[in-house]
């Protein structure tokens, strides 16, 4: 029983099955995403955001399931797209953990949880 439950709990992500649509984000939408990120993370300045999310190449938006959006930077040298931000429903746009670790000096808004 435990083996079967664990396998469904930690199901591996499969883009061919789990992604319903993928679209390149228009420049105006990308500016809106940057402003939403700046609103949720006020410590990030415009210069830092422009460095983290340059205009070229544009972001790619993946719709995963009914409620999750994944925003990726196109990285042809790394062999595909790199996830940088995600958004659940209409919540705030949050950075992925890998993105936070890639830029450790950037002060994203943090949350602390006590036991």
Please characterize this protein's 3D structure.
This protein is of the alpha+beta class and 115 residues long. Helices cover 34% and strands 27% of the residues. It has 5 helices and 5 strands; from the N terminus they run H-H-E-H-H-E-E-E-E-H. A 5-stranded antiparallel beta sheet has the order 1-2-3-4-5. A hairpin with a 4-residue loop joins strand 3 and strand 4.
What is the fold's blueprint, element by element?
Elements: H1 2-9, H2 15-18, E1 19-24, H3 27-40, H4 46-52, E2 60-64, E3 68-75, E4 80-88, E5 93-95, H5 97-102
Antiparallel strand pairs: 1-2, 2-3, 3-4, 4-5
Shape: globular
* Uncertain spans: 1-7
- Helical residues, percent: 25-40%
Sketch the major β-sheet: 5 strands, antiparallel
Cα-to-Cα separation, first versus last residue: 29 Å
- The sequence of SSEs as H and E is HHEHHEEEEH
Q: Structural class per helix/strand content?
A: alpha+beta
| Share in β-strands | 25-35%
Q: What is the strand arrangement across the widest sheet?
A: 1-2-3-4-5
Task: Give the total of beta strands.
Answer: 5
Give me the Rg, rounded.
16 Å
Given the structure, what is the number of helices? 5
Mean pLDDT, rounded to whole units?
A: 79
Summarize the structure in short.
The chain is built from five helices and five strands, in the order H-H-E-H-H-E-E-E-E-H. It has helices at residues 2-9, 15-18, 27-40, 46-52, 97-102, and strands at residues 19-24, 60-64, 68-75, 80-88, 93-95.
